[in-house]
Design a protein that fits this description.
The complex is a heterodimer of chains A (about 400) and B (about 120). By secondary structure, chain A is mainly alpha-helical. Chain A contains 20 helices and no strands. In chain A, α17 packs antiparallel against α18. The longest helix of chain A has 23 residues. Chain A is elongated, with a radius of gyration of 24 Å. The termini of chain A are far apart. In chain A, about 40% of the residues are buried. By secondary structure, chain B is an alpha+beta fold. Chain B is about 25% helix and about 30% strand. Chain B contains two helices and six strands, in the order βαββββαβ. The longest helix of chain B is centred in the first third of the chain and has 20 residues. At the A-B interface, α15, α16 and α17 of A face α1 of B.
Chain lengths: ~400, ~120
């Protein structure tokens, strides 16, 4: 018997590889043909392996089937370019295999090109994430729908529009030229960062989906670090950031699916393996002269892997946020900076600074002020927390806030 | 929303602070700038080093240091976004330079390429 996890894992691993290689072969306009071939390959595996047993080398089996299916598609299809067909017919005449190169090197190259194509600035960012998950990570429509908390129809529409963009925008599968590499790589990092956040902060109740999104984002950044042109300090910093955050995934959700806030987490559930991987990539990121927001965020995330509150910890976090905000403002960074200010410089100063932020429509603004007033003015604290509860769109969060309210003394 | 330069002026730039004082001052300055950035009002900024500072006069004479006869020096500046000069002044009031007696902050609106200036 096969272990039940084998197939989904293999699927995730191989779907993107097969699709990318086929798209490199067919051209970007035929991305759906490639997806179909990959899907059918896995369907056949699911239909036959339970009865005949898993082949000795499952990957080789999948590649052989994918090649055969490609052959059939090329014979039948009228939509594929005549050129591709002609090439294939010619190779048939010479009694050679169609040139579907599933060598490790070509797989990596195809996946990287695909990643750059899918993260092209001409494609809307939310579609980029969906496309990457579908094409590179082999997510099904059901999984995508629960990851984004929308129905299947919406996801389908989003994918159709995104593929349309792939065909009509000036997206090519060429590896970006030297002078384009830095901005294009920035786009890719942004999309993968979003993919990770989508998983880490997702409001879906399905823990598995959340973890998968984070794992796939990590896997995709690792793809970048496997190529010397894209193996940049920023990519290492992003990878460090992801590992540090992901180390707390298991501790962030209770067995009943509730959100567990940082202060209430069981530290024994933090993954020490991920923390040390994060530290490894953080040390690799300390090269060159460019300090990116990923460097700063990874350093902040590093300090959060140390549970004990010390002056040093919070002073460091505060200064990192001070620099991060100068580099790129975001409301959540402003609020987190103010929390660090309370820990490093005292609550009084932090309350004055918090009120200057004027983020009154942001629920976390009220959560922060609720926390800062706790113990000195519980009535005010309660009012702030209740306002946060009213603004929150997630029931998991509302429950977490309720616990804070219940623990107030006054 | 206009941009304003907040210029830190030291009454006597030749005064030497202790390492502890310097460290404290550094932190306060970083917290001050971080607080402005947290309101999404920070544009840019830089400190100006006294080390190897030169003064060039109208006869192209070069002298060392910004000091000489005038003791007052500029320590650095930041540029902020503000909806009025009053808001910019409020930011300036928070600058730790003002804890030194005699030091001042100069608030100046940045000229725009709008034909007026």
């Amino acid at each position: 018997m096969t272990s039940p996890a084998l197939l989904p894992n293999l699927f995730r691993n191989e779907f993107g590889k097969i699709t990318s290689v086929l798209v490199k072969h067919f051209g970007l306009q035929h991305v759906e043909v490639a997806e179909d071939i990959a899907s059918e390959t896995f369907l056949l595996a699911m239909e036959t392996w339970p009865y005949r047993g898993v082949p000795e080398n499952p990957t080789a089996w999948l590649y052989a089937v994918a090649k055969n299916k490609t052959k059939n598609v090329l014979q039948r299809s009228r939509t594929l370019d005549e050129k591709i067909k002609a090439e294939w017919v010619q190779s048939q005449e010479h009694l050679t295999e169609p040139d579907i190169d599933l060598s490790n090197q070509n797989i990596l190259d195809s996946q990287l090109r695909m990643l750059f194509a899918l993260c092209h600035p001409g494609i809307p960012v939310e579609s980029q994430v969906a496309l990457c998950l579908r094409i590179l990570c082999g997510f099904g429509i059901d999984e995508l729908a629960s990851a984004f908390l929308v129905n299947k129809e919406t996801i389908n529409k989003r994918l159709v529009r995104a593929r349309e963009k792939l065909r009509t925008t000036e997206v090519t599968l060429e590896f970006p030229a030297e002078e384009q590499l830095v901005p294009r790589l920035d786009n890719v990092l942004t999309t993968l960062y979003l993919m990770f956040s989508e998983g880490y902060y997702s409001e879906t109740n399905e823990t598995i989906i959340r973890e998968d999104l984070c794992e796939e984002a990590i896997r995709s950044v690792k793809l970048l670090t496997s190529n010397e042109k894209t193996n940049t300090p920023a990519a290492h910093a992003l990878l460090a950031l992801m590992y540090f955050h992901a180390s707390r995934l298991k501790a962030r959700t209770s067995p009943t699916g509730e959100l567990v806030l940082y202060d209430d987490q069981d530290e024994r559930l933090w993954s020490q393996e991920y923390i040390s991987r994060g530290a490894y990539y953080l040390s690799l990121s300390a090269k060159g002269t460019t300090l990116t927001k990923y460097h700063l965020e990874a350093s902040i995330a590093y300090w959060h892997t140390i549970r004990t509150d010390t002056r040093e910890k919070w002073e460091n976090i505060l200064q990192l946020y001070n620099r991060l905000l100068q580099l790129e403002y975001s409301p959540i960074a402003a609020l987190n900076r103010t929390y660090a200010l309370a820990k490093a410089n005292g609550v009084e100063e932090a309350i004055a600074e918090a009120e200057k932020l004027k983020l009154t429509t942001n629920q976390y603004y009220h959560t922060l002020l609720g926390e800062l007033h706790r113990g000195t003015d519980d009535k005010l604290s309660r009012a702030y927390l209740q306002q946060a509860q009213r603004l929150s769109k997630s029931s998991a969060e509302r429950n977490a806030i309720q616990k804070k309210i219940d623990s107030l003394k006054d | 929303m206009d941009e304003y330069a907040l210029i830190m002026r030291h009454e006597d730039g030749s005064k030497v602070a202790s390492p502890e004082q310097l460290q404290q001052w550094m932190k306060q300055t970083m917290d001050w700038i971080g607080g402005i950035a947290a309101q999404n009002k920070f544009v840019s900024g830089t400190g100006l080093l006294f080390d190897k500072a030169k003064v060039v006069d109208s006869k192209k004479m070069v002298t060392n240091g910004p000091f000489g006869d005038i003791k007052e020096t500029i320590g650095g500046f930041i540029i902020v976004r503000a909806s009025s000069v009053d808001e910019a002044v409020e930011f300036a009031k928070g600058c730790p330079v003002l804890m030194g007696e005699g030091n001042t902050m100069e608030v100046r609106r940045i000229a725009k390429d709008d034909g007026v200036h």
